[in-house]
Structures
1.
Amino acid sequence: MILKNLKTYFKFLSKNKFYTFVSIFGFSVSLMFVILLSLYTRQELSVDNFHKKKDRIFLMSHNYEANFGNTVAPFVKDKCPEVEAFCRMHSRSVFVGDKGTEKLISEAIFADSTFFNIFSFRLIEGNPSQVLVTQRSVVVTQDYAHKLFDKENPMGKTLNIDNREHTITGIMENIPLNSQFPQCDFVASYSSITNYWSDEILTTSNNFGFTTYFLEKEGADLQSKIPLLLQLFKEEFWFYKNGFTDKLEFIPLEDVYFTVKSSWGLAIKTNSKDLIKVYGAIAILILIIATLNYINMTVAQAGFRGKEAAIKKLLGGSRGGIMVQLLKESLLMTVVTFCLGLVLALISEPFFNEVLTTKLEMVKQLTVSTIFAGILFILFISLVSGLMPALIISKFNPLEIVKGTFTRKIKSSYSKGLIIFQYIVAIALLICSFFIKQQSDFLGNYDLGYQHDNVFSMYVDLDTVQTAGFRSKLLSIPGVDKVSFSCGNPMDRGNNYSFEKDGEQYSTQEILADDDFFDVYGICFTPSDVPFTEKSLLVNNNLFNSPLANKGDMTIELGHNSERLPITGILSDFHIGSLHEDRRYLRIRKKTNGMRPWGVSVRIDGAADIFVVSDKIQKEYIAYTGGEHARYPQFADSIIQDWYKKEQNLSKILSAFTLLTILISVMGVFAMSLYMIKQKEKEIGVRKVSGATGGQVLWMLNKESLIRVLIAFVIACPIAYYMIGEWLNDFSYRISLNEWTFAVAGSIIAILTLISVSYMTWRAAQANPVDSLKNE
């Protein structure tokens, strides 16, 4: 009986090839998106959930930035009995290999010996409490060990890391993808950071460039110690004494991934929780649309399958039995489309990873739990998508067959409602896609007020004597125009000073620059004839017009013991940092000869090959420092484009989803038109016999589709307006919403609808009425 029912179903599918194609293609492509987005959302929302002590681990932060000096962590542990342990961390790219051989660029994390006791990164070999105790000890990842030593046991072997010997004391599993910690090749003992700074780096807090995690004792409340610690920090540490910040936070481990803005010490991965929720919502919406489209298509077929159901009832079949058969067919269709969707997802995974700058690795996520969830998903979707068509088809009355009054017409209220819903979603998404693309382009093309093209920057570790020599070396490279050493630049915003005045909180940025800084970035100040000296204080218009400045005597208060300093110039109007933030208060002062610069900015001649020149700059630094590599070498343009990757990724994903939604909707409407026209063949014939022209018949058939689009447009516009308005509220610099974008989106859907149905309606309007009436 089952085989007979399957044979009947396959016969029906083969006779209705377009219906079969639309159902399978639309559902499988939709499920491809659902699978990819669901796995991505699951991976992102489960970041660091695998740590056994996650509820007691906190990241120390200020102003959502997680950088502190090395003596801060021991100080906190000494003052707070709530602290069980701490772990300071630092990450950087290093070079591994013996002298005279080609060196391998590797990613390293330097961490305190408590690393494996606080975090649940599994050791394959080695004692968690001992592997990082000794200086220059290293725990390599499983993949890195295999890469360097193949099948040999690496325990006890040495690695030459930046020309210093380190001993392998342990092997660990690779850091999971769902972790905030950067993917690394090995974890080295924290004391090894003295290889890159002097020994004083461990005993002073002059360098606020390291990241610290704390493990709270069970039952303790570390958060309650923040007021006390803030008071002590203002007495103890220069970062707080000098007003760089007056904030202190202990961010729970599970919130770090979605909270921290930057961490100089550790390359913490971050993401937007709201954006993840958007991707999750997109996956759900795709699933709803695909399911509704399948229901719509099946309901449209109800009249054609109703005769089969009625005949089975005449032969003794029950309505329940017919419903079970139809639900089995739905299950079969869901299994087939799910398998096809899974295959398409595997094929599309590399593209998906590239668009979202992630690493999904679907095969590794096929665990017992995900397979079980997949089975439940298939059963649920087959039930939801099959129940309504089963109820409609199984209710046909067998007496209509006996009386000869059987008709293929059914009430179309279900189909009309579902089609209008799809149109609403398609129009709203198209409007949102247009505006998100406009906002993304607006951010990327916005004039920031300084020259960032052909500017190459990198962080360096040079003293004042080395700086002068390295400047000469760089200027000797063909294609290098200008060289500037500074503490900060327009992209990284320099240092931050936060302080309170008259009950108000103020935050200012400070860049310490040399004379060539202004030429490299094309920044001006007035009056331009005043020399830039160590006594100079240049402020932007934002700061000059703030309550901190006194325009009468041209002085300004900057939070240093309420001292007022003379303003010597007003900077040209330019924006520091990304456009996600409001224009900040900024001051620029002269970098004195005794100050070590953070980095170097180089303006490259536009006629030169900027990539060749930048490569020479990096090689010159390696040669000049005896093998040291500069950190974060980047073009200014690349840094700026990276700021808006999330918006660009969202635009790409939403555009693909919108295209899919429109495609499914149009194909569904086209298929529906086939059956609608078949139902109206007699009416068309009667109208043509009565004198109606082909154009009148064409308008009659197309009018209904256009009315549905119009209804959907009226409903979709306010929905899209609200959604895109809420999204744009997160931007300090934003586009304005214009009416033509709404009109274009509605027009596109209307035109596509007309194109999809007009061919069939034109054929119906041109058909000979005798053919449709001769059998009536």
2.
Amino acid sequence: MSQSQDFTPNLHHARLLLTELISHIQRFDLNKLMYRAPILDRIRFEHWSQDEIMGFKKWLDGVENHGRLLDAMIDSRIPPKDDPIPTVLNLITYWKIIITSQSPMVGVKMSMGGEKRQAWPLSKTSTVPTANVNGKGKEKEKEVWVDVIAQGGREWIRIYSKKISHLLAEFREADSYVNSDFDSDSESDSSAGPKTSSSKQTTKTKPGMDNSLVTTAQDLLRAANSVESIPGAPVPSITIHLTRIPATPRDLYRKTPRSDDNDREEEEEADWPDNRIPLTFQHLQSQGINLIFGDLSDKPLSSLSGPPLPSEPIPNLMFNLDITTLLGLCSDVLHHPLPISKAEAARRSLRPTGHLLQDANGEIKLVSRGRDGTGKSKNKVKRQPLDSEEEEELKGQSQNSIELYKCILEEMERPFVQEFNEVIEGAWKEQLIRKKKKDGRSDQSESLVNTVKNLGAKIQEKLDFNEKAQPTVEFYTTLQAAQYTYEALSSGPAHGHGMEQRRMRRMLGLEEGDFFEGSRYEGKEGFLRGLKVRIFDLEGQEGFRARSVGEVLEEGRKRGEDLRNVPLNCHGHDVDDDTTDGVEKTGFHQTLYSITSHFLDQYYLSLIADSTTSNPSQKNHKIISQTTGNLPNFLQPRKLPTPPIAKISLPFPVVSLHSLQRGAKEGMTTIMMGTATLKEVWGQVCWRVRGWERGWYDWEEGSSIRNDEEEKEEGNDDGTGELHGRREKGHAAIMIFPYRVFGEGKRVRFEKGDYSYPTKDWWDEESGVGGPQEDG
């Protein structure tokens, strides 16, 4: 009686291998696998990035549990019945596949597809459920397991761990069925004429071509074509990793060392043991499936550090200015001479104790309700945490006064115009280096770097530069943002001396003159000298003309009418072709364009009044009933901000969506002051779909990992020890600065000793959106 093999030595070796694996995982920086959006946040100075890799913690728990199981087996001193090493090697191979796949990594060990996760309406290529053979209902679309979801959701990776011998067994089984049928029907078939030779049979008719590998691929393709996705995403591609099948038949024989020359000749002439094996591979590849062979055993864990972090995105020197930036650029906070002290800043923005609002008991309120303490704001004021000193200083002040005070203090510490100039200079430097690398002019490397370094002078010194050495910096904005800026600064009385309104008119081309006239930056504007903002879709025309509220609403209704019969599908594979040709964009630009387009379509569709409840004689362009059920929460009518003074034709979030959409379409960098609308869009469920991240990486051609010296030379060593190795195609999609509120009106009133609160009585109802009126 033969004795069974003792796997105790293998058990100890398996535990050592697993310890090495767990140690490697614990040391590994998972941030390398997760997505970083090309957003430059100059408020928090943090990344807008992926939260987690779905399923990873559960998988890691399974690895650690397996370690505890091996420990228990070792402690028991009972020899294992089966070899424990293959299971551990499979876990090591799985981890290697995870960290060698293309980031961003969305999930591991995830079930995808199935009726619960189908896009609606169903994709044309998806399988329609049909009645089963018993007629007892419909067949359900079955889910498929995806081992790794990579490239932000664009790639599904499935591990196929069966050996060649398993496929051969499937072929023999298929052949046995064919032979059995042939034997039973040979007599009747013999009179039916000559048979087609097996060599002429197609792939589909060959027995065994519906093997487990083909079936797995078909299930993955079906699920990928029907699964829901984020707006603008493509159908996921399929990769099958055949971990126990070599790439060529010669590799089958390389497992055993060969020393004989005859053996080497046989190895060179080797072929697959069954021609259906290469036919299967060809069939799958013809369907667009990527096949990867081998278990990565030739790559030790110590050599695998994962993909490089993306380089800090470079802003495009063609800037798209969001509504917040247009308003902020006009703000008195940016242009009036800065206070010399915190006390002077308080005198400009905070009311003295004797002019503070009190509650019913005569006590001063901590923070008065409403942006100006009038209590007329329908939106809840989010109370910011204050320390005891700030609480006492700001007690009883209006929200607007507090915001203005903090803006002034921030401007004293970080002047926006100066900081923006520094950003532009840095972007120019990066683009020069980028162009040099693309052109391959390595011989000019030293002189170019020296030239760029010499540009690191202060903003004032830039004025002495030769104009020919200056970069081309262009500023654009949307028609909606220009309209909103005009309405916000033209409705009601003039703000103080009307300097903010004058800047607005000159910026939009409504008045001739220097935007910086009378500003503390006059003569020191840097790259913003002669600021003029170009408006999309108005180039070549007479220029910007402010429209009435009625015109804007009528245009919005017309757009909504055009969308009546267009199905709006947030979770379909609706890759939009309406993009700018020849412009390099990041994956984030593409999905941002699609999701903002979707929200805008939803909003304009909601402007169509319900014919059964609306009153045709209703005046003032108001809509009684709206189809708002599908609107995201931040676009619901009850959530839209209503300015107490200005007449605004489009709500602020809608105007901001237009800016984000157009900047993404053009591949530009959208400048925002504050994150209000972006935070709302970022958190929408349409952008948080199972199996998808908000974007993906399209690496710049020729981009590769760079060494420490190159990183430090180019300024990419951010002090965190993270060296960023690859650049995305395109530029930063969004750059965020701290917001700036209007301050001229309050400053001038306070200088006169007028601490009253603005009310709607200031606004002449008959003036519409006419020119600004002088403050009486």
3.
Amino acid sequence: MAGKAETDVFPLPGLARIDGANLQPAFAYARSSGSWFDAFRAATALAVRAVMVTGWEPDGKTIYAVPSPRDGFRAGDLLRITFAKDRVESFFLIESENENTTSPPEHHGSVALGVTPLGSLRSLSSADILATYPNHFQLIWTLPESQPVTVDGNLRVNESSPPHSDEDRITLDVPPGFAPPPGTLLRISWSKEQHLWFQVVEFQHTTATASPPSAESGLGGRVFSWSDQAPAADPSASHFAERLTFELRVRRGETDALRLIDLGFAPAHPRFWNALPDDAQLFADKSDDAHQSLRDAAREPRFPLAGNPSFDARYIPIGMSALAEPTAAAQHSDRSALERDGLETFSSSHFLDARLLESGITTLLADADFIRYQTPEAPPLTGLHAALEIEEATLIAVPDAMHRGWSPALTPKVLPPFPSQPREHPSWWHFLECDPPASPPEAAVPDHSQFLKCNLRILHPPFLSCEGPDASGAFTLDWSSADTDAEFILEEANSPDWTGAFELWRGRDFTHTVLSRLPGNYYYRVRAEAAGESSNLSNGLVVTIAAPTRWEVKAAKNFQPDALLDIHRALLRFCAARGDIMAVLALPEHFREADALGYLGTLKTARLAASASPVQPLGTGEASAFSYAAIYHPWFIVREETAGLLTAPPDGAVTGLIARRSLARGAWIAPANEAFSGIVSLTPQISDGHYLDLLLAQLNLIRQEPRGFLVLNADTLSDDEELRPINVRRLLILLRRAALRLGMTFVFEPNDRTLRRVVQGAFESIMQQLFTRGAFAGATPAASYRVVTDDTLNTAQDFDAGRFRVDLKVAPALPMSFLTVRLVQVGERATATEII
């Protein structure tokens, strides 16, 4: 691979991972790598069930609780006991449920739960913090797969709350630009041993009324302390207990959310959320009986998120909402989507398994079997070689092999927005001369050296920010303002100097979502209006909607066929090694007649000297592989209902045509002279004068005829005239599969003349059916096929070696000589070989 594919990471709001005496944010991962999940958002929702706890032992390892009549306790359940007066939540992990053998009457009807104390979480008020900790701190934001972000901050009490209220909302003053989304868990640190945890509820931005105005950024939220020690609370203290599970929701745009409910917080829970499998784990042969119900729920419909097995830890909820709010967007690096898909450069390595590049036709299957069956820790086969696992496939195509490659496109520089000019405020300048009337000055604030109206209201400019755009192009504009009763006017422009700015939206909300825009740069600003007054315009903001790609296809004149040759050569060896599958090839769209002829000549050139290519040319001993492939050209131009005219390589449509004809009439019928549907035109246009040259080169040319777009020849690339027709190769593949399937039924049968008669009859029955359907030439069965099992084939030496052979000789429905397919069975293994 040219670059490693990147997996999107999703913060899980309200979920924390226990890391000894510390807490860490919890992250889920997309179920597969790449940029496919950029537009998804994740949320959690806490589910609680009240539990009656009658007491516990002093060591905190046994809790007496009354089980619910509907369902009992299970290992892995998380129990939370809340001491409201002390604002403390203590967490216990249930390990076992035992019969209560104690005698105190207060425990009557209860069971003894063996538990592991996880720790206690205490919610701190602003008074607690200010009385204990210094005002200045470091705020640490832990991010996945990267270094934590650390900023300096100060503690501030929300002035709208009573000074000693338990419901104080904590506000942290932070540097501008530091804006973790709601739900983020941050660490407040004064030293290595002294720290608290802060859960973000909102981002605040205010403008001071001083002259000139100054902006302040803050984070509003809740502060917690954490102790991993067993709680020392008295059982007689006022408390209530709950058994906790949670729900995980994932939504893409406005579509309905996918949900997984009853998720656990610990590995022992049968629905432990971190056991969610990614695609590689779900579709591997290995099973996970402990979490099978979770895997089944995530399989259909396929849930987009997966856990991280490297964190086999325990988790607790911290400020988790019951309403699946807030939602968190996918986090990833600032690389483009193509780079995060691992496709920064185009090469044959995307299509081939590097471990099999040096394998020839005779050794490829053995090498692949060694990797698959005798190397337990080896990764599965990749690229086209992964198709070895799909035994029922008889056709294979690699349409993406025809790409010309790509390179980064030149992107124009994004100009920052110009500062907006102050608006006119006539009420600020009533003291100016009236005759002649003076134009009100442009100013950010009124002139306080003059007498101003006592009821003059000064609206301050809002502060504008943006979240997004996401992968679908949607983004949300947010603004903050102290004037909560004002109406806000949002303006949009296409140029940084605000030329042509227009009113996009008006209302009292503090947010507006723009669902779609064409690629380009869009400039936004907002102002407030109230009681006939208007604020000046806010800071300007530019939102760039990138084109679907920041890459461009390389010019046709710079095309080098090296990658395509590697892929086609490897595909030919793959098909010949399997012996029961045929490749449908195509050429790049820009290939003209001379390009096509030159490429075919290079592809079929035998190996003469060592090549720098990772896949060597097919040697003279591998010439039979060319009968397992057919090549088609030119490309189709098709019309899509939503996308207009599109070009497409022909191999996909041809593969469908071959399959349809095989199902309708049989594999022995030539897949030609049948019109394609949905085709508007062809590209490039092939001149009539080159038809014969391309026919002799065994290129199956797609042509426009009065009856439609169709292909009038059906040739493989084989130089052997008997194997040149596609229908001959397809018939031999059919016979090979039939011979192997029937031959396996005779494993362990005694090797005697009775076996010969039974095998003879079984194969003659199959051949007769094919003869009746027209698969063979000849007016009679004897002239069409032969099944040979006599002493000329099975000698005494074969009998002694435990080997039994069957020769199937057929004359395909073409004027040609007999071809022989030989079935050889030795012990438990059967093989089929063509004998020309």
4.
Amino acid sequence: MNKSYISIWNEALGSWVAASENMSARGKRSKSRTVAGAIATAVVLAGVSGTAASAVIGTPVEATNGTYTGTDTDSASATAPDSVAVGAGATASAQGTTAVGGASLADALNATAIGIQATASGEASNAIGWHSMASGSGSNAIGQYANAAGDWSMALGYEADATNYMSTAIGTLAAANADNSVALGAYSVADRADVVSVGNAGAMRQITNVAAGTQDSDAVVVSQLRNVSTALGGGAAVNADGSIAAPAYNVGGTAVDNVGDAIINLDGRTTQNTSQITSLLNGSAGLMQQDASTRAITVAKDMDGTVINVAGTAGTRTVTGVAAGAVRAASADAVNGGQLYGTAWSTAKALGGGSIVLADGSISAPKFSVGGSTVYSVGEAVTNLDVRTTQNTEDIAQNTTSITNVQNQLADGTVGLVQQDANTRDITVAKDMDGTVVNVAGAAGNRTVTGVANGAVNASSVDAINGSQLYGAASSTAEALGGGSTVNADGTLSAPSYSVGGATVHSVGDAVTNLDGRTTQNTEDITKLQTQVGDVGTQLSAAVQYDRRADGSVNLGAVTLGGGQSTGPVILTNVANGTSQYDAVNFGQLSALQDQVTDLNGQVWNLGSQLSNVQPGSSNSDASNGSSSGGGNDAVVNAAAPGIGAASTVAGAGAAASGDNATAVGANAAASGVNSTAIGTDSQAANANSVALGQGSSTDRDNSVSVGSATQQRQITNVAAGTADTDAVNVGQMNSSVAQGVQQANNYTDQRINATNQAINDVAKNAYAGIAAAMAMPNMTPSGPGKTIVAAGGATYKGGSAAAVGATYRSRNNKWLVNAAMSVTSTGDAGVRAQVGYEF
């Protein structure tokens, strides 16, 4: 029969000795109680006392007269401080070790071996079960032949095998043979590092009731895969084996079967679009382009079409920023208002007679005093000129064809940019948009507009004219004026030089005045002759004869028809056409002369119309119709300029640009700030570098752009999305930014809440699993003395679960109970419990 022994203190020997638990103490019964108390104290000290102690329960010994002898050599051994050995051949040879069971071995620091031939050879290891082995540091082997060889490994189940660092094998014959691997379930094999296996190559398992993953490293479920396939579109679906059937996309006419190829296709086309858009933005592509080297801007230079139209929904537009074009016979450059003003001013000066350039750019009619009467045209003055004036008239008449040709050439041109009609090939600039100004000025200043076709020249024309047209008009005017007048390089006319009556004059007005004086003198002389001829006629009323002078001599230079007897003018009929200087002219010749004079007068007025019907410009660099005036770096258009700053521009009745480098366009527009711009009726730009756009708009600070006033605001529409830090943003961008900010805030809040919830859930899971571990720990009592019971338990609590195994031994004297157990929770935590109890 097996016996249990305990270590007791031998007072005679002064040492601990082995004693049967059934033996009696010497002396009185109270002494027996004392011995039992000492035994219990020794056992407790072996487990918890800070003082080095050991406890051995092994083969029986006998004590005779103070001498203790074992009956056999098979005994438990606890040779290290704080060690416990229970069972035949049990060995606890390292500090803090526990060996419970026959031939059990715990030979590493703080190791525990429970079960027959259980071996715990790893530091702080636990081996529970028959032939269980825990050889890795911190390892746990629970179950018959369970093996935990890796450091911090766990083997739970019959022949469960965890051989590598932090490996876990749970289940009969489960094997975890790689670092940090987990094998769950009978026959499961985990042979790769950092994996969890729930089966083996020949017998796989499904993992069911898995919640949908929420973090990047969470497992996903089939429903989530279906969501992925739905998001992929293109017919993508989850196959029966869990794989995803490839989608089918049609991208740009190309069939692709994966998202990567679709993105590559879209990226290529997007890149191409971006490149083309970039080319349009930097001027290297499109109808309007800018040369990267010369910085010259061209419009549809590689396309056909003969018309550029800048008119929009609000009507015609002013083309501004036009540099002075070349003015010569072969020039096709657009000319600006400053150039046309120079031509108009020089023309008015050449005409004389008080002619000036009016506010609308037209030239006022001259005022000549001829023969005591006032005339308002060159034609009327010419009727009173002498033969040399008649010669001039003939010269002017010869230019009629030239003027007509110029008119025909001017009638062909219009103005416009940017778009070209596919059928008519006409080019238009923003024809479907509002706005009244087209500005070609750039960062380097005004630009010359070249390639300008001849514009129409008539009373209703709004076409731009080119340099050659202006040169032609100026040239024909110079030719009509005669007197050596020529067209200067800047398009103005040089003053003519006439030699009249021995004097040199430099305007038609001065010439007319000279001729008028001499003609008046001739008239007085003729009157005197007529008086003399009248006297002779009275005497020779019945005959045609020479008149006589006052002294009675014959005046061979005068003949009075009818003599003194005639009561009225006498008709001289059958008069042949005069052919020489002193021949009489007949009515037919006089009528022809009158027609020529009338035609000349009409030509002069037509010329004035040709120079006054082009759309007005707003600065000295604008294309203009002659209704603009300016000088130097300033310009005044259609208005008397109440205040002109240096290098300023004014356009509109009552407009004022009193600030330097200021621009005022529109009736009563005022630009008083330095570098300010006011565009629109009653617009006010009073601050430096400010811009007021639109009727009634006003600025209230420097370096600002205003499209309204404090009481009348405007929306700015069709604003492209800003790309640079200083660009304006549109409502779409703002809404997107707000939505993005809100989304980011929501995402951050959701992440923090999810993290908090996850932390709480982790704590709860660990707590629930810990409760389940406490519930699962077996605490069964052997049925009788000397009996050992091994039990396993499992428990679940609010989703947390645990499995536990344990062993309990009852001493033969029925006084002692020794219990050890180990649990493993669903969260991967393990716990070990050891208990010793004494009953009395």
